[in-house]
Write a structure and sequence with these properties.
The structure holds two protein chains of two kinds. By secondary structure, chain A is an alpha+beta fold. Chain A contains 17 helices and 14 strands. Helix content of chain A is 40%, strand content 18%. In chain A, the strands form three sheets. A nine-stranded mixed sheet of chain A has the order 2-5-6-9-1-10-11-12-13, with helices on one face. A three-stranded antiparallel sheet of chain A has the order 4-3-14, with no helix packed on it. In chain A, strand 12 and strand 13 form a beta hairpin. By secondary structure, chain B is an alpha/beta fold. Chain B has 15 helices and eleven strands. Classes of the chains: A alpha+beta, B alpha/beta. The interface between A and B is large, with 30 and 44 residues.
Amino acid sequence: MTADSKSDRSSDKAAWEPVIGLEVHCELNTKTKLFCGCRNAFGDEPNTNVCPVCLGLPGSLPVLNIRAVEYAMRIGLALHCEIRPSIFHRKNYFYPDMPKDYQVSQYDAPINVNGWLELPDDSRVRIERAHMEEDTGKTSHIGGGGRIHDADHSLVDYNRAGVPLVEIVSAPDMRSSTQARLYASELRGILVATGASDGRMEEGSMRVDANVSVRPAGTFELGTRCEIKNLNSLRSLGRAIEYEIERQIGLVGAGDKVVQQTRHWNEDEGVTVALRSKEEAFDYRYFPEPDLVPVVPDASWQAEVAASIGPMPAERRDKLAGLLGPEPVSRARADQIATVVEHGLDGLVTAAAGAGVDAALALARTSNEASADPDAARRIEVASFVALLRMEQDGKLSATQSKTVLAEMLENGGDPAEIARRRGFEALDTGSLATVVAEVVAAHPDEWQRYVGGEDKLVGFFTGHVMRASNNRADGKAVAAELRRLRG
Amino acid sequence: MTGAGPTDLAAPGARPSAALDIARDVRSGSVSAADVVDRYLGAIDEIDGELHAFVTVLHDGARREAESVDLKVAAGGDPGPLAGVPVALKDNMCTRGVPTTCSSRILDGWCPPYDATVVQRLRAAGAIVIGKTNLDEFAMGSSTENSAFGPTRNPHDPARVPGGSSGGSAAAVAAGLAPLALGSDTGGSIRQPAALCGVVGMKPTYGTVSRYGLVAFASSLDQIGPLTTTVTESAVLFDVIGGQDPMDSTCLERPVPRTVSALADGVEGLRVGLVSELVDGVDGAVEARVREAAETLAGAGANVEEFSIPEFRHGLPAYYIVAPAEASSNLSRYDGVRYGLRVDAETAESMNAATRAAGFGAEVKRRIMLGTYALSAGYYDAYYGQAQKVRTLIIDALAVAYQRFDVLLGATTPTTAFAIGAKVDDPWAMYLSDVCTVPSNLAGHPAISIPFGPDDSGLPVGVQVLAPALGEPVMFQVAAVLELGAPVLGPPRVHAR
C-alpha cells in the first residue's frame, strides 16, 4: 500500500468492504444426549439429567447416539454438503462446566463439508463444514455482579453437558449485516425444516458467532478478523456486526491495525469488548478421541436419511408463490410467504388453495392472523380453516367477521360456521348493503360531493359509517365497490 | 457361561488350581462360599500388613456376596462357573459404593456410583470381590512404588518390588491372598508384575474386554486382564470377563474366541518365532530361561526359529509419547470441581491448580507434562504424529511375522525383581522395565507371561507368548505347554498358610 492510497482510505465507509462469516451452533432435538442415554431437555431441575458418562466420572466411556448422527446428516444434506467418513477429536481445555475438561468434537475430519446455502436475495453462501460436538454444562455465578470475576461462588448445571450440537461454519462470503441476518434466518428455517433442531436463539438452542473483518474495497486479501460472541437474537447479530464494522474501519482508516481477538457483544451498551487476543488463545491440543470409533455413513444410510427430510424453506416459498399465479410476487406478498414458511404454516395455504379458496386470501389470513400465534395455528384443523375461508370468499362473512372467527378458532378451536352463528355474524347481502350505503350517502351530502369531486380518501369515512350502521356486517371491499358504483 | 463345571475345563495334568477347586466345591455344596471368604480374609488380615497388596479389603461386602452365593447353591440354582471364588481387583476398576482410588490422593475417598462391566461379569459368574489392590498411581509405573499409599512388596523377597503397575494384584495372587485377580495392562502392567511375582498374567486383544469402569490411563492401550496362578485359571477368567459391551464403543463386535477348549491342544507343528529383540540384551539369567522355554516348545513338537523384528526397538519411545499424551487428557477431569480432592482457592483456575498440585504424585505430573508437550500445537506432528506412525510400523512388522509364525516368544521383562528404591529416582531406568511388553499394547495384540523357573537368586522369571489379534486360543495353547515344562519355582517367602 502506498502512502497516497493510504491517505485515500479514510474512515469513509464506502472505501472498505466488510467480510463476514458465521459460526452457528445448534442443539439437536434428539431425545437423548450425544454419548449417553440421559434426557436431552431444556429447563429441567439442575443436575437431574446426568449419569456417569455425561458427568465424565472416572471410568465412564462415550457411546455415540446414532440418531444424532442422522440429524447431523439431515442438516448436511439440506445444506448440499458432502457427507464424509468422520472421526471425533478431543479439544482439551479446563473449564468447570466441562465435565471431562475436554470437549469431544470433530476437528479435521467433520461429517459434512463443502455445502452451500442460497439466501432469499439469491446470493449463495458457501458452507465450509457442519460438524458434530457435545455441549458443555451451564455455570451460574452467584453473588457480586453475577460475573465470573466478582462472584462469590458459582453453580454448575450439567443437564446440558453432552447435549448434541452441530456447528455450521460458513465461508467468509457475507458482505453486510443485513446479509448476515438473512443467512442466520434462512439457516434457522432450514434447521427447523429438517426436524433436527428447534433453532430457538432465545433459548440458546441456536447460537451464532460472527467473524468480521474489513478490507479495502476492490481488493481480495482478507483483513484481520475478530470473532464476536454472545449474539442472542437476529437483532443483536445485526447490531453487533454494524458496530464491529465501524470499529474496524475506524481503526484501519486511522492507520491502526485490527488485532485478532475474540470479542463479547454487550447488548446494553451496544458495543463489542475484547475477551482475549490470538496470543492468549488456548492451545486445545486436539487429538483423535480414542474412546470412539470412526463414523462412516454408507450410501444406503445417506439415502435413507435424505428420504426422511421434507422440502426446505426455499422450495416451499416457491410453491406458495406458484399458487398465486405466474407473475412475479410483490414485495408484500413475498414477505407474507416468508412469514408463513418461517412458521411452518404453509400447509394451511396449500390446503385452502387446493380446496378452491383464492390463494391470496389464504395467504393473507395465514400470514397476518394465523401467524400471530403460530403454535395455535399449527394445531388448528385444516378443514375448519378451509371452511372459514370459503365462507369469507362466498361473502357469507365479512373480512372483519372472518378475522374475529379465526381468532376464536385459534384460541379455542371449534367449527367456524358454529362460531359465526353464535356471534350473530351474517354478511349483508348485496341488496341490503346497497340500501345502507345509500342511506349513509344521503346523510352526508357535503362529504359525498367532495368524494365525487375526487377526494378518494373519503372512502374510509363512508366505510366507517356503513360499518357502524350495519353492526360490522358489511364487507369493507364491497362497500368501496358500491361507493365507486354510485359515483359512476 | 453356564453348564459345564469348571473342573471339566482343566487340561489333563494341569497344575493344581485353588480357584477351580473352590468353584467345584462351592457348586457341589461341599464347601460354603462364606468359609472360603473367611479363610482368605483371615490370610489377608494376617500377612498383608507386610505386603501391602491391598488398598481396601471388603470384609463385609465379600461376606455378603458369599452368603448370596451360598443361598443360590442351597436353592438349587446355578451359582456360576466361579461360584464363591474370591477375586482381587486392581483399584482402578470402579466398584459401586466402594472406594476406587487409583492409589492417588486426588481420588482418596471417592466411591463410584456404578460397577465396571468386568465387575458385573465377575458377580454374574458367582465370583466374590474380596478387595481392591494397590497400584502405581493411575497405573503409571513399573514397581507399585508410585502409590500414594506406599509400595507393595514382592512375596518372593519383601525387599524387592512386585513390579507394576498391577503390583498389588500380582502380589496378592502370588502370596495366596486371592486365587484370582484382575489387573490392567497399558504397557505391560499385568505381565511385568506377573513375571516379577511368579504368576500368570495375560493382556487380552484390545477390544475383547470392556473398559467401561476402568479408570483410563491411556485409552487406546488400556486393557483389563487376569492375574492367576495357572494358565487354565487365566483362560477361565478371560472367558468370564471378555465379550462385547454396548457401553464400550471400542469393544470388538466379532465374538471373542473361547479359550479354555484350546488348552489341551499341544504345540505339535506350531510355528514359534523367538524374537531376537525380546531375548538379546535382557539379563543373562532371563535370557537363559527364555531359550530354555524355546527348547521346551521344540521338544513338544513346535518348530521354533529365531526371528528379528527391528521395529520393536522403537516401541518404548513411541509408547512413552502415546501413553502420556492420552493420559494428559484423561487426567484433566481431576479438577476439584465434581469429586475427589479439592484444595480451595480464590478462583476456579487457582483451585484447579492447587488441587492438582496437591493431589497428583511426581510420576503422574511428569507424564501429564510430557503428554501435554507432545500434543502441543507445533509439536504434535513431531511427537504424537510420529509415535502413531511407529505404531503402524510395529503393526505391519507383526503382520509380516505372523505370516511365518503362529505365536512369538520372548522375555516378559529385562530383569527379575529389583530392590525397592533402586529405580525410583531414575525414570528412564524404570521405563526400560516395559521394553519387552509395550509392542503388544501398541499393536493391540494379546500376550501372556508365564512363570518359567527362578533366576540364580531364586527370583521368578517370566517368559512371554505373543499372538496376533484374537489369537488368544493359540496363545493359551502354547502357554499351557510351557507351564507344564517350566522349571520348579520355590514358594514365595511370604505366603498364606
